[in-house]
Amino acid sequence: MKKKILTLNVILILLLSVLLLVGCEDNIYYWDVEFSYEDIKEVKVVHVTSSYDEYCVLEDIPMEQSQKIIEDLSTIKMYKTRYQHCASNYGFLFVFNSGEYIIVTQIARERVVFEDGKLVAKADCYEFDKEQFDQVFFKYLSNYPQDLW
């Protein structure tokens, strides 16, 4: 009887191990844009230094390119992360008519919205595929050669 219980426990442990290994494959996501293009007032290429409200504008993007940038970003693979990341490094800033904005960097999308009269950042738990994000980023960055990065 003890042998059967031990055997059953070993089989259960092996089965759980296999299920855990199979369940660890990365799911791929894509950005489901939650705003309208008509709501965008400005688009900029930015370097985010330490938080959502500390960034340096590198370049203004013509408004007629805003829809194309968002379409390009929406085709990039995204992976779910365990934690929310703050936007950092280089990316795009979309300023809306309301004064709210979203910063899109390779490691995070951070939406900055008004709550109780204050701007509050809301990050998500996804990051873009680095290689694909860089391709889109450098496609729209005209004033800085890619080999400087």
Description:
This protein has 149 residues and is α+β, with helices and mostly antiparallel strands. It contains 3 helices and 8 strands, in the order αββαββββββα. It has helices spanning 2-22, 66-74, 130-140; strands spanning 40-51, 54-61, 78-80, 89-96, 101-105, 109-115, 118-123, 126-128. The strands form 2 sheets. The chain has a 6-stranded antiparallel β-sheet, with helices on one face. Strands 3-8 form a two-stranded antiparallel sheet. A hairpin with a 2-residue loop joins strand 6 (109-115) and strand 7 (118-123). Residues 19-25 have low confidence and may be disordered.
Unreliable stretches, pLDDT < 50, 5 or more residues? Answer: 19-25
Q: How far is the first residue's CA from the last residue's CA?
A: 67 Å
Q: What class would the helix/strand composition place it in?
A: alpha+beta
- Biggest pleated-sheet summary: 6 strands, antiparallel
**Proportion in β-strands:** 25-35%
Counted by DSSP, the helix tally is 3
Please provide the ordered H/E string of secondary-structure elements.
Answer: HEEHEEEEEEH
Write down the overall mean pLDDT.
80
Given the C-alpha coordinates, what overall shape results?
elongated
Could you tell me the radius of gyration in angstroms? Answer: 21 Å
Classify the helix fraction into a percent range: 25-40%
Spatial arrangement of strands, main beta sheet? 2-1-4-5-6-7
Q: How many beta-strand runs?
A: 8
